[in-house]
Write a structure and sequence with these properties.
The protein is built from twelve helices and ten strands. It is of the alpha+beta class. It folds into two domains: 7-117, Phosphorylase Kinase, domain 1 (2-Layer Sandwich); 123-346, Aminoglycoside 3'-phosphotransferase, Chain: A, domain 2. A hairpin with a 4-residue loop joins strand 4 (100-106) and strand 5. Helix 4 (133-150) runs parallel beside helix 10, helix 6 crosses helix 11 and helix 9 packs across helix 11.
């Protein structure tokens, strides 16, 4: 089958072959416009012929057609990573994710397409609004299940980049170039002290990631936020695997707790949620043996994620008003977490390692 290059190419004939049943008509509606950034998504409504039955709707996902953004997606290898995740990782998870009816990939031609189960009828998470404590508990248990399943079992997954990949190491230079923009655009939002903290931390970024490369012991989703989460009762359904990587698990826990909740809720329940994660993964004979080591890694990682969200806010091009507000709220929330935990005290300390 020819891999569709546009959403318009996903017609009744194509879906009839994908679903192995006669699709008579297809109508589509773009979703997540201005928020998916590197991809284009549509909800397709299907009508069947000859009394056939099948899913009433599916989600189609292809690389962005934006000539400025697609090369970035190719450079970051996000399209191939998600395709391979559906082939090699997701089938081995107990964590629920939308079923793939079709997973087409032709890396040489930069052609990719996923036809996915539509989970839009489930309760959707909302990073902008923030989540509930019950949702956070479900996410912590699911994160422990993901990380515990792959703890020290990532051999053979060399296509999944570790935290000290060459691309990640290049972030330091990008941050240095973008810092004047951070000062101009985020000064009123962050304040002088936090900006000085970021400026002092940026020159240590490459060394921090290199040190953490030794602790890349499991798989991380790396875009672990409410906008990529749905809830079926208490069960988490996780979407969007474009940024899957290897790390110590904090690449999911830190941005989730730091950027998804209003500061008051995070401050009240953050430690209990981390302890819930720690208990759950420990029962799988995985994860940090000592909770204090987990918490230290959490504090160190906050520096990276605050800087990353600041960089995203000043470097992202055209987006929706909600998309920009999402970045702004994440920055404000993470900045509050760095201040509470005095994370700047750990800047430049690359000798720390968790106890075995």
């Amino acid at each position: 089958m020819a891999i569709p290059s546009t959403l318009a190419d996903i017609d009744a004939d194509f879906l009839s072959e994908v679903l192995a049943r006669p699709v008579a008509d297809v109508s589509g509606e773009r979703i997540a416009v201005g928020e998916g950034f590197l991809g284009e998504l549509a909800r397709l409504t299907l009508t069947y012929a000859d009394g056939a039955e099948g899913p009433a709707t599916v989600i189609a996902k292809i690389p962005t057609s934006d000539s400025g953004l697609k090369p970035l997606g190719v450079m970051l290898n996000v399209y191939d990573r998600e395709s391979r995740a559906y082939d090699e990782v997701i089938p081995q998870l107990t964590l629920r994710t939308p079923r793939a009816f079709y997973n087409g990939a032709e890396p040489a031609d930069e052609q990719y397409c996923l036809i996915l189960e539509d989970v839009g009828h489930l309760r959707a998470g909302d990073q902008h609004a923030g989540g509930t404590l019950e949702e956070a508990r479900a996410v912590m248990v699911a994160a422990a299940g993901l990380h515990g399943r792959w703890w020290d079992r990532t051999d053979g997954l060399d296509w999944v980049p570790p935290i000290d990949s060459p691309l990640n190491l290049s972030l330091q230079g990008m941050y240095e170039q973008a810092f004047p923009q951070m000062v101009d655009q985020l000064g009123d939002m962050l304040g002088v002290e936090t900006l000085a903290h970021i400026e002092a931390w940026i020159p240590t970024c490459r060394d921090m990631l290199t040190a953490y490369g030794e602790m890349s012991r499991t798989l991380v989703h790396n875009d672990f936020r409410f906008d990529n989460m749905f809830f079926d009762g208490d069960e988490l359904v996780l979407i969007d695997w474009q940024t899957i990587g290897r790390g110590d698990g904090l690449g999911d826990l830190c941005p989730f707790l730091g950027s998804n909740f209003d500061s008051e809720l995070r401050r009240a329940h953050e430690t209990d949620l981390l302890r819930l994660y720690h208990r759950t993964i420990t029962e799988m004979d995985a994860g940090f043996g000592d909770f204090e080591d987990l918490f230290t890694s959490y504090r160190i990682s906050l520096n990276f994620w605050l800087t990353q969200w600041c960089f995203g806010l000043v470097s992202t091009g055209d987006t929706t008003a909600r998309g920009r507000q999402l970045f702004e709220r994440a920055v404000v929330r993470l900045a509050d977490a760095t201040r509470q935990h005095e994370t700047w005290e750990l800047t430049g300390d690359h000798s720390w390692r968790p106890r075995v």
